[in-house]
User: Which sequence fits this backbone?
């Protein structure tokens, strides 16, 4: 049986792991390679590295860091942040990443999704959507959550899969950093609508939150950062808990 | 020396890194002589079947691969190209394994992506593994069950997670991305 995936996310700034609350007030959380290695040994199913400064400060994601991660890490990993063209993807993939995550650049130029999928395959393209519930609607935000767009989350999710996105990483900005649980309604709405896997992100604070995610929505993966960074929820304990609750997870 | 076949399909870097972590040197090459001289050959790949076969055929590598006598390990697209034919681009393949490659038509989500259990393990590649161990898959096409099947997996259908015939071995999953279990499988291959 295909397993539900637990994915720690490492937000990267200047080569260090950082974590913000509600997309702001950044604090240092350690060396990314060391953390990545720890997550692999604890049983993480995949890793996501997001260069959170890349879009805002127009920096390219650090290809050298990706090369070093690839040397150390034997599970799939995704790299995102500041990817604007097929050449950016080429450099990240040839450095050893399995997938790239794109966000603002796809909103600016949706055809980029098709270009990447044609060249590297849909399985390479993780479309990240940052969304916020405003006036009774889930709206897409870009530039690291700083700028609202006109796009509704559900219609954007549909569009990106038609263009060739192979996976959707859906982050609820309302929930991010709150530890109050995932935004189950929008996660389920998007998962039901599209025929690609949906990774839910934002709000995980307890093991129960992951159980609720997998039992109440069709999400195939749950992503979190700080609770794993600071070992508030050890990944091994989380997986044992999920297995006991009859959620299929990888335990060995 | 371990040779990794160079052709128009990635992700070769990960395979090379995995081999290096196990303490072996490797070269990435499409030179027939270097491939024939290697102790072991790895045929990796993430890509599209027909364009990959065209690349191999144009360079005569199809004949070279078929005639190799040392242990050869196909991974993912490598496995599919070692079968008779693939529905992807209606491609005629190398015909090493006696099975055909079909598309997942009845699955809710395609590609089949993530960790899934492998069972009915019957290959020295799987020494020290347990029935039902999880490995990492990413694919939209699968090889049907055949007499060469050495492990099975289920995703809307039961398919060949691994194939084996004489000196030819292949896995549909990515051992280089399958953490400790994958490392064990690669190590078993490199020690053959």
Assistant:
């Amino acid at each position: 049986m295909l397993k539900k995936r637990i994915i720690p996310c490492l937000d990267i700034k200047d080569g260090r792991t950082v974590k913000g609350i509600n997309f702001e007030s950044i604090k240092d959380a350690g060396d990314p390679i060391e953390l990545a290695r720890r997550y692999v040994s604890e049983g993480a199913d995949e890793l996501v590295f997001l260069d959170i400064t890349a879009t805002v400060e127009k920096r390219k994601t650090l290809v050298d860091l990706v090369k070093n991660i690839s040397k150390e890490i034997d599970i799939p990993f995704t790299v995102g942040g500041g990817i604007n063209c097929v050449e950016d993807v080429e450099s990240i993939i040839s450095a050893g990443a399995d997938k790239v995550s794109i966000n603002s650049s796809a909103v600016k130029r949706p055809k980029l999704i098709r270009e990447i999928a044609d060249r590297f395959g849909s399985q390479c393209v993780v479309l990240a959507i940052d969304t916020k519930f405003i006036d009774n609607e889930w709206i897409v935000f870009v530039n690291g959550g700083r700028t609202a767009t006109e796009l509704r989350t559900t219609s954007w999710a549909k569009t990106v899969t038609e263009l060739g996105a192979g996976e959707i990483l859906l982050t609820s900005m309302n929930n991010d950093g709150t530890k109050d649980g995932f935004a189950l309604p929008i996660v389920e709405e998007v998962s039901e609508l599209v025929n690609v896997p949906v990774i839910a992100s934002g709000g995980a604070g307890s093991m129960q939150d992951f159980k609720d995610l997998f039992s109440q929505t069709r999400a195939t993966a749950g992503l979190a950062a700080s609770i794993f960074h600071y070992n508030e929820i050890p990944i091994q304990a989380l997986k044992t808990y999920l297995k006991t609750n009859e959620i299929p997870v990888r335990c060995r | 020396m371990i040779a990794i076949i160079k052709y128009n399909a990635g992700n070769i870097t990960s395979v090379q890194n995995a081999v290096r972590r196990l303490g072996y040197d490797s070269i990435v090459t499409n030179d027939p002589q270097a491939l024939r001289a290697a102790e072991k050959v790895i045929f990796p790949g993430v890509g599209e079947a027909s364009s990959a076969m065209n690349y191999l055929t144009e360079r005569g590598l199809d004949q070279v691969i078929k005639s190799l006598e040392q242990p050869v390990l196909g991974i993912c697209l490598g496995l599919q190209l070692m079968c008779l034919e693939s529905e992807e681009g209606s491609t005629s393949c190398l015909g090493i394994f006696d099975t055909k490659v079909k598309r997942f038509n009845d699955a809710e989500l395609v590609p089949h992506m993530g960790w899934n259990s492998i069972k009915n393990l019957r290959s020295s590649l799987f020494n020290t593994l347990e029935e039902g161990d999880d490995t990492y898959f990413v694919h939209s096409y699968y090889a049907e069950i055949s007499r060469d099947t050495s492990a099975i997996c289920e995703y809307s259908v039961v398919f060949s997670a691994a194939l084996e015939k004489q000196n030819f071995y292949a896995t549909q999953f990515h051992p280089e991305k399958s953490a400790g279990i994958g490392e064990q499988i690669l190590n078993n291959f490199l020690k053959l």
Q: What stands out?
A: The longest strand of chain B covers residues 157-165. Chain B has six helices and 13 strands. The longest helix of chain B spans residues 179-190.
